[in-house]
Write a structure and sequence with these properties.
Length: 83
């Protein structure tokens, strides 16, 4: 099982959707909330090159956001990445 990290905010519908898919697959992930935490948001921005949430990593690979996660699911690649 890969180490999964997802940076989120509380009221982001894309964050909710991405977490729903990961929950549906029964995988564990570490959620890092960036709302009201400028340091965590800066950390995420530096790593991802983007200020938008969610930002998702599977292992050392930066997946991107919710749209990219869903595209991986549609292509069948997500299950392989989750291993």
């Amino acid at each position: 099982m890969q180490n999964i990290v997802i940076y989120t905010t509380r009221f982001c519908p894309f964050c909710v959707r991405a977490k729903w898919l990961l929950d549906k697959k029964g995988v564990r992930y570490r959620e890092i909330a960036v709302d009201n935490d400028p340091g965590k948001r800066a950390e995420m921005t530096a790593k991802a090159g983007s200020r938008t949430v969610p930002q998702i990593w599977i292992g050392n690979e930066h997946v991107g956001g919710c749209d990219e996660l869903m595209a991986l699911e549609r292509s069948g690649r997500l299950d392989k990445m989750l291993g």
